[in-house]
Design goal:
The chain is of the alpha/beta class. It starts with a strand and ends in an 11-residue tail after the last helix. 52% of the residues lie in helices and 12% in strands. An 8-stranded mixed beta barrel has the order 1-2-4-5-6-7-8-9, surrounded by 4 helices. A two-stranded parallel ribbon has the order 10-11. Helix 7 links the parallel strand 8 (162-166) and strand 9. The chain folds into 3 domains: 5-192, Alpha-Beta Barrel (TIM Barrel); 205-279, no CATH class; 286-408, no CATH class.
């Protein structure tokens, strides 16, 4: 059975804000967006992705702008209609442009209000005929000369088209894209790039970090946790506000630190401490903070869910959750990761995994990173080494995406300015 994976890769504007996600697909031994493999293979690939999207567009892919490359078969199966018009950009390759029936479908979708993008646009006659239909022009920095990039962006902007440079893998390529004045960027370097470290190394001695350490002990001491929170006004305020938010559907108001801890539970504290920390960082860019938190929660969820299928693992699911969460600590604290992890009471296997990617925990961590960057070959080999069936990876991944999206939606709709429920008489 061949491997089939679907993964999201962020597309960011020049301020680092995520404007949407590229939906990358790999199936039938071939990347979705590569050259067509023939009708039989395309039909099988289209059938697989259509089935997946039917089950998932109302969940994980809802509410974000999804850039997705469509084959002729997917256009004809009316796959774009699985998405709301506001959630989808239909991307096409050259093989669609030279296919009259595919173009008929594409023009129909454009008339219905779907946005259109062209991969590796060229100023050739067959592309120019599409200009009235196109909303986004995508240019591959690896295969397009710098002069051609500059000229295309200049002309595109004069016609009110947005340009995205893709396949950015290095800092030098990222800087070149910025200099060219492109509207957005994507690629492995862009996906990994977080601009700001939220805290200085002094954070290691702060109440926030002490609290993080306290809640991750094997046997947390509730009195110690309560004391640490009570010593810090911002911690106390943040915790009480969170415990009284609509997210926890309280019938009674939590009026003390102890009641708030009991309301959240120590399990929730392990993840919410990150939220408390970043939301009290004193001026870090909100886009960076949001991206940092989402990355933390996503890795934590993915590590934890994969543990249901991985074999011979030396850690528990809750420890795997912390491994994913703590993998972003170097973005939270401006200090060497080795120094940071020395302060955190986690298993040595986790420290070795995060520092050196060694052992079975290191393989699990590498698998999560490989899936983030759509490294198809690494995904297959690492899953096999861990005993994880590769056919479940995409569903597990999108369950985690949905969990993180749900969490974020609840945070943004209920946490800020939420008045606590009045106690019943």
């Amino acid at each position: 059975m061949s491997s089939k994976y679907i993964v999201r890769q962020p597309i960011k504007d020049l301020q680092g804000k995520i404007i949407g996600y590229e939906i990358l697909y790999y199936g039938e031994n071939q990347a979705f967006s590569s050259e067509p493999a023939g009708p039989a293979s395309e039909f099988a690939s289209a059938d697989t992705i259509y089935s997946f999207l039917t089950q998932n567009t109302s969940k994980a892919l809802k509410g974000s702008l999804n850039f997705m490359t469509f084959t002729s078969m997917l256009l004809m199966k009316k796959t774009p209609r699985l998405f709301d018009k506001s959630d989808l950009v239909i991307q096409i390759d050259d093989n669609i442009i030279i296919h009259p029936l595919s173009m008929h479908f594409l023009n129909q979708y454009a008339r219905e209000g779907y946005k259109i993008a062209v991969n590796e646009f060229q100023f050739a006659p067959r592309y120019l005929a599409l200009l009235d239909t196109i909303d986004y022009i995508k240019l591959n920095i690896q295969t397009t000369a710098e002069a051609a990039l500059y000229n295309t962006i200049e002309v595109a902007h004069s016609m009110n088209k947005k340009c995205i440079i893709t396949n950015i893998e290095t800092e030098a390529e990222y800087k070149k894209a910025i200099q060219l004045g492109v509207d957005a960027v994507e690629g492995s370097y862009v996906a990994e790039k977080l601009e700001t470290r939220v805290h200085s190394s002094a954070y290691l001695q702060s109440n926030f970090f002490r609290l993080m350490v306290a809640v991750t002990k094997d046997e947390p001491n509730v009195e110690e946790i309560e004391q640490l929170i009570s010593m810090d006004a911002s911690l106390s305020y943040g915790l009480l506000k969170m415990a009284n938010s609509a997210y926890f559907a309280l019938r009674h108001r939590a009026t003390t630190i102890q009641q708030a801890i009991m309301t959240l539970g120590l399990g929730q504290m392990k993840q919410w401490i990150y939220l408390l920390s970043v939301s009290n960082n004193g001026g870090s860019d909100s886009a960076d903070s949001e991206e940092f938190l989402k990355l933390s929660f996503m890795r934590a969820n993915f590590c934890s869910e994969l543990m249901k299928h991985a074999q011979d693992m030396p850690i528990s699911r809750s420890e795997a959750y912390l491994m994913g969460m703590f993998s972003t600590l170097s973005y939270l604290i401006d200090a060497p990761l080795e120094e940071i992890l020395a302060e955190v009471p986690v298993a040595d296997e986790i420290k070795e995994a995060l520092l050196h990617k060694t052992g079975r925990c290191g393989k699990l961590y590498e698998l999560v990173l490989a899936y983030e960057s759509a490294n198809w070959n690494a995904i297959s080999s690492l899953a096999e080494e861990l005993g994880i069936p590769n056919q479940i990876l995409t569903n597990v991944y999108f369950i985690c995406v949905e969990n993180v999206n749900t969490l974020w939606e609840q945070l943004n709709s209920n946490y800020p300015n939420q008045e606590p429920a009045e106690p019943e008489e």
